[in-house]
Design brief:
By secondary structure, the chain is an alpha/beta fold. 32% of the residues lie in helices and 25% in strands. Strand 7, helix 6 and strand 8 form a beta-alpha-beta unit. It binds adenosine-5'-diphosphate (ADP) and magnesium ion (MG).
């Protein structure tokens, strides 16, 4: 269970360029399911997902993850929680060119200190599962867009996170590939994962796989009655 209590985030606080991107977010996400954050560009979706994923510290407010407050933890503990709890699917893939598909998928597991052979087996299994077994040794820049995204998903799953955070995952995908992404999400839900997606793509927020759509505007959650 994930709970946000009056979370705010002000960038460049104290300067003339100060900007408050989150203005008091209260939110509770119980267990398994898909939650989509939608809203216009600049409404704070990426900032909110970054706070939830312990990548960005809020300016004020608290986040409680499985009964534990995360907001005040020193960075090394936050990094550990981030690594174990969250898998990230970024809009721009952030794959490392020059490395193969399997090498990219393996990256998040290195800080865990597991043996290289163990990490490699795990990555192999994930690539197989995502239909990428034959691409394991190929450089990521030679993959198609859909294959690159599945590589990103394999990478996100490396450490068995209970939460998958996807920021505009279909921004660079055509309709068929967006459908394939939704299918993968539905499998992940079947495995008990919780998926959080920021998207203004109707293919995503109108998808039957989605349990809850939260609208954001100007750094706040729009009340559901509106
Ligand atoms: P969204 O993902 O909904 O498009 P963001 O969370 O990326 O919105 O951004 C919300 C607002 O915060 C935007 O106005 C953006 O310019 C601002 N912002 C985001 N990141 C930073 C940053 N690192 N420094 C200053 N302003 C930022
Ligand atoms: Mg964004």
């Amino acid at each position: 269970m994930l709970e946000l209590l009056n979370i705010t985030k002000t960038f460049n606080a104290g300067k003339s360029s100060a900007f408050t991107a989150l203005k008091g977010i209260d939110l509770r996400i119980d267990g398994n399911g898909v939650t989509v954050f939608r809203g216009p560009s600049g409404s704070g979706k990426t900032t909110l997902l970054s706070v939830i994923g312990c990548m960005l510290r809020p300016t004020s407010g608290r986040m409680i993850l499985n009964g534990r407050e995360t907001t005040s933890l020193p960075e090394r503990f936050a990094a550990e929680i981030r690594r174990k709890t969250f898998g990230f699917v970024s809009q721009n893939f952030n794959l490392i060119r020059g490395l193969s598909t399997i090498e990219n998928a393996m990256i998040p597991a290195y800080p865990t200190g597991q043996r290289h052979s163990v990490i490699k087996e795990k990555a192999k299994g994930l690539l197989e599962r995502l239909g990428l077994a034959s691409k394991a040794g190929q450089k990521v820049e030679d993959l198609s867009g859909g294959e690159q995204q599945r590589t990103v998903i394999a990478r996100a799953l490396m450490n068995d996170p209970s939460y998958i955070i996807a920021d505009e995952p279909t921004a660079h995908l055509d309709t068929d590939l967006a459908g394939a992404f939704i299918e993968i999400v539905s499998e992940l839900i079947g495995e008990g994962k919780t998926v959080l997606i920021a998207s203004h793509d109707p293919l995503i927020y109108n998808s039957p796989v989605v349990h809850r759509v939260i609208s954001m505007r100007d750094g706040a959650i729009v009340p559901e009655a509106e």
